[in-house]
Specification:
Layout (H helix, E strand, L loop, with lengths): L1 H13 L7 H33 L4 H9 L2 H14 L1
């Protein structure tokens, strides 16, 4: 994941963009938040499905824990509206 972030930064700088541009910073914040949420959901989702396979009463808990990392992306989108 760190290699992708480094490559993204190099791409932005090589195309004449600057990381101090507010719109580029907002886009980078949302993109990295989405990557982080996806990385978190990878482990949570598999554990939730495994727990629900054992006991169907854990469906609500698994659903809440699976959706919880997506709030990070929603908060990152708030940054876009503040900057824009």
């Amino acid at each position: 994941m760190f290699e992708a972030t480094n490559a993204l930064g190099n791409l932005v700088l090589s195309t004449g963009g600057t990381l101090t541009d507010p719109n580029a910073a907002a886009a980078l914040a949302v993109g990295l938040a989405a990557l982080g949420a996806g990385y978190a959901e990878r482990g949570i989702g598999s554990a939730a499905v495994g727990a629900m396979a054992e006991d169907e009463d854990l469906f609500v808990n698994g659903l809440i824990l699976t959706v919880l990392p997506e709030t990070i992306v929603i908060l990152a989108l708030v940054v876009v509206f503040i900057v824009g």
